[in-house]
């Protein structure tokens, strides 16, 4: 068997980003609060980076503190309208020395999750330790909406693996106890079961009885809104059916969402606009909103103060000089990247304001013109990926509200048409809002009305825009009159 060695050459052309470019792209994608955290982290980690403050800042702050002599207790009492509104504990004498610990009453929101709430309620029932362990395992398989995520047979096998031998009858007995806990509907296996659990806790009335019969026996007809067949099968008129439907509408399809404290982080999330647009007598003013401090190189790390005056520095001195140069270069690069980010965001937003001038003058979403990434790139000269990152997750504040920048990017329904998708969305929404609820319009009928108004689009486009608006098909929009 012969063996041979071959030598070959291959030429490749690859584009690689420098570390500074990678950092710029990463910061460009960040939102305002995320960049603030990044700046704070950089200042803490890099001794060559510092926040530049006005020279008179400390003096002004000291003057303000001298002028403001109100105590914390006086500030709290000032929050009340009159003395009668002040709680009694605020007026009680505080017979403590300055060294003693004194705790003010504080209102704290409950942070219990749905599972914690169910376990606490289950603990109040008269159950054995074994039943309590089974109940806690079942509760652990209930999702945030209050639905059972696994079937009882699978949980029976899981408990057996854990060394807890329980019969299906015992498992169902504990499960029924859990389904009787608050909020009503928790522990349901599906939507129909959830609605029935809530209806069975209602005070029995004719309307509740009809609603229970609809959900229990005619759920498919109810979900498809076949009202005529429901009336015929149940032997009731449209008024009785309408009253029963009103009862069903009061039920909660996600009972677990009623419990507070399911996610503290979700509750604390809020939108922070990156830009502000103000209109005054036809003049548009764009402002880049941020709480970023002005950064500078710390004086001891500046090039003038770190010049090597030693003719022959030793090893330790060389390492110190290399460390100073490295940190100074990192600080200079960070400041430069931060300024590039701010400049890029401002230029991109300025181009959007120019292209969508009519909207910002009127705040009418129907006036948003067709605009894609290439239109902004033509005005700014930036690459499409840069514009996409600069607009992702960013918001602009106007006189009428806060809008995401992605709202202004919309395609043309047809290549040779200058009508924006937002305009057509507004017209479709208007047509559906004005339709007869007992006989809602089909997509074909909506398309015909749009053609009469001068919007020549296909039926499948109408269906796509209707779904974007979150509106169901005609059959599911039908209501009893």
Written description of the protein model:
The chain has helices at 19-29, 32-45, 57-67, 72-77, 88-91, 114-123, 129-139, 152-161, 168-179, 191-199, 206-217, 219-223, 227-234, 238-249, 264-268, 315-355, 357-362, 373-380, 384-391, 421-433, 443-452, 459-468, 474-477, and strands at residues 49-51, 275-280, 283-288, 295-297, 395-398, 401-404. It is mainly α. It has three domains: 19-52 and 266-304 and 314-410, no CATH class; 114-257, no CATH class; 421-477, Arc Repressor Mutant, subunit A. The protein has a four-stranded mixed β-sheet with strand order 3-2-5-6. A two-stranded antiparallel ribbon has the order 1-4. It is extended and about 100 Å long.
Mean pLDDT over the full residue set: 82
Q: Measured on Cα atoms, how large is the radius of gyration?
A: 33 Å
Strand content bin: 5-15%
Ends distance = 90 Å
Measured as a percent range, the helix fraction is: 40-55%
Number of domains: 3
Give the ordered list of helices and strands. HHEHHHHHHHHHHHHHEEEHHHHEEHHHH
Oligomer: single chain
How many individual helices?
23
Describe the global form.
extended
Topology, number of strands: 6
Poorly predicted spans:
55-69, 100-110, 261-268
Given the helix and strand composition, which structural class is it? mainly alpha
Largest sheet, in brief, is: 4 strands, mixed
Strand line-up in the sheet with most strands: 3-2-5-6
């Amino acid at each position: 068997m012969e063996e041979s060695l071959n030598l070959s050459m291959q030429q490749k052309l690859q584009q690689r980003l420098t570390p500074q470019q990678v950092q710029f792209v990463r910061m460009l994608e960040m939102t305002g609060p995320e960049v603030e955290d990044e700046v704070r982290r950089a200042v803490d980690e890099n001794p060559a980076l510092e926040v530049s403050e006005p020279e008179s800042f400390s003096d002004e702050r000291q003057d303000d503190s001298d002028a403001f002599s109100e105590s914390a207790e006086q500030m709290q009492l000032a929050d009340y309208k009159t003395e009668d509104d002040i709680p009694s504990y605020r007026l009680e004498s505080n017979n403590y020395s300055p060294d003693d610990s004194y705790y003010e009453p504080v209102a704290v929101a409950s942070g219990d999750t749905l599972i914690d709430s169910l376990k606490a309620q289950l603990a109040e029932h008269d159950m054995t330790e074994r039943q309590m362990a089974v109940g806690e395992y079942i509760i652990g398989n209930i999702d945030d909406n209050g639905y059972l995520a696994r079937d009882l047979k699978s949980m029976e096998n899981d408990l057996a693996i854990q060394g807890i031998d329980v019969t299906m009858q015992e498992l169902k007995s504990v499960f029924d106890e859990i389904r009787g806990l608050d909020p009503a509907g928790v522990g349901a296996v599906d939507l129909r079961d959830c609605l029935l659990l809530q209806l069975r806790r209602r005070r029995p009335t004719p309307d509740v009885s009809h609603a229970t019969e609809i959900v229990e026996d005619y759920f498919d007809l109810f979900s498809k809104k076949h009202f005529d067949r429901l009336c015929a099968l149940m032997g009731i008129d449209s008024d009785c059916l309408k009253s029963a439907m009103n009862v069903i509408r009061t039920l909660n399809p996600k009972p677990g969402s009623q419990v507070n404290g399911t996610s503290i982080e979700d509750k604390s999330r809020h939108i922070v606009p990156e830009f502000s647009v103000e209109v005054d007598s036809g003049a548009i003013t764009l402002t880049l909103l941020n709480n970023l401090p002005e950064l500078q190189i710390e004086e001891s790390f500046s090039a003038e103060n770190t010049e090597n005056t030693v003719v022959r520095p030793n090893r330790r001195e060389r390492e110190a000089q290399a460390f100073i140069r490295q940190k100074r270069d990192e600080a200079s690069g960070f400041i430069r990247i931060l300024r590039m980010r701010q400049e890029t965001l401002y230029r991109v937003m300025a181009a959007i304001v120019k292209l969508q001038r009519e909207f910002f003058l009127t705040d009418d979403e129907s006036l948003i013109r067709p605009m894609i990434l290439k239109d902004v790139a033509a005005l700014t000269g930036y690459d499409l990926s840069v514009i996409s990152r600069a607009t992702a997750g960013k918001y602009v504040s106007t006189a009428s509200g806060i809008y995401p920048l992605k709202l202004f990017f919309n395609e043309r329904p047809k290549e040779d048409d200058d009508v924006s998708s937002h305009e057509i969305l507004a017209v479709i929404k208007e047509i559906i809002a004005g339709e007869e609820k007992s006989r809602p319009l089909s997509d074909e009928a909506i398309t015909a009305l749009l053609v009469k108004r001068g919007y020549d689009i296909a039926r499948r486009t109408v269906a796509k825009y209707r779904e974007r608006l979150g509106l169901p098909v005609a059959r599911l929009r039908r209501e009893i009159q």
